Amino acid sequence: MPNARVLRDIKARHGVNANEILRRAYLYVARNQTLPPQVRFQAQLQLNTFGRYARPTTVQNRCTETGRGRGIISEFGLCRYQFRLKALAKELPGVKKASW
Amino acid sequence: MAAVAPSRIAALTRLRCELFQTSYNPTSVRTGAKYLRARLRGPSMVQYYPQQLTVAGFNRMGGGFKIQDWDEHQRLADVEEKKRRGKGAPKKAKSPAESRRMSKRR
């Protein structure tokens, strides 16, 4: 069972996925300087009605093993310690401990 | 070499936009096109965490075969036991005034 922060992140990811197209449409209207200001303002108000789990900035990549939120090596989706453990156990293809 | 008139340069830019099917926007007005042009990020975002098979997920799949979730069973039993001993979760506050957060502030 993943920890609560991971569950929250999963929720945010699904929220972003579900609302993305609608948000993009409102963003297009709100940021379009060729449209009348009133229309743009209404679009901005609509953007503000989305919850926090609809914004892509809420999503944070966490460690897929431990759920840690800092020190993530994004290529592997692992935190630095899990990355080290897995690399030393030869579970990450192409990763080798440096030695010279 | 003589300087080229600005109107000639503008005409050239307009023609270039026409040829390469780009929009002619000499004053750089923000049209919001970048929000339509950008790829959707949701589908790849959802796939970040690897799929994990849980007991509840397995039971939801259907197929006429259910397995007992003993961990969940144990958790519910523990909650019941705690409630019986008066150590359960407090009652939900009916109004903001009786919430714990309010009483702390006082």
UniProtKB/TrEMBL annotation, chain A:
Q: Which GO molecular-function terms appear in the entry?
A: DNA binding; structural constituent of ribosome
The keyword DNA-binding is annotated on this UniProt entry: yes
By its UniProt entry, which InterPro entries does this protein fall under? Ribosomal_uS14, Ribosomal_uS14_CS
Q: Which UniProt keywords apply?
A: DNA-binding, Receptor, Ribonucleoprotein, Ribosomal protein
Q: Which Pfam family, giving just one, matches this sequence?
A: Ribosomal_S14
Q: Note whether Flavoprotein occurs among the keywords.
A: no
* GO BP of this protein: translation
Q: Write down the Gene3D superfamilies for this protein, in alphabetical order.
A: 1.10.287.1480
- Tell me the SUPFAM superfamilies matching this sequence: Glucocorticoid receptor-like (DNA-binding domain)
User: Record's Gene Ontology CC terms?
Assistant: mitochondrial small ribosomal subunit
Q: Which PROSITE patterns match?
A: RIBOSOMAL_S14 (PS00527)
Q: Family per UniProt?
A: Belongs to the universal ribosomal protein uS14 family.
Protein name per the record: Glucocorticoid receptor-like (DNA-binding domain)
UniProtKB/TrEMBL annotation, chain B:
What keywords appear on the UniProt entry? Mitochondrion, Ribonucleoprotein, Ribosomal protein
Q: What is the lineage of its organism?
A: Eukaryota, Fungi, Dikarya, Basidiomycota, Agaricomycotina
Q: Name one GO cellular component term.
A: ribosome
> InterPro entries recorded for this chain?
Ribosomal_mS33
State the family it belongs to: Belongs to the mitochondrion-specific ribosomal protein mS33 family.
Q: What's the name of the protein?
A: Small ribosomal subunit protein mS33
UniProt KW Ribosomal protein keyword: yes
Q: Which PANTHER family match?
A: MITOCHONDRIAL RIBOSOMAL PROTEIN S33, SMALL RIBOSOMAL SUBUNIT PROTEIN MS33
Q: What subcellular compartments does it reside in?
A: Mitochondrion
Bias kind Basic and acidic residues: ranges: 95-106
Where it mainly occurs, coarsely classed, is mitochondrion
Q: Where is this region: Disordered?
A: 76-106
Basic residues bias: where? 84-94
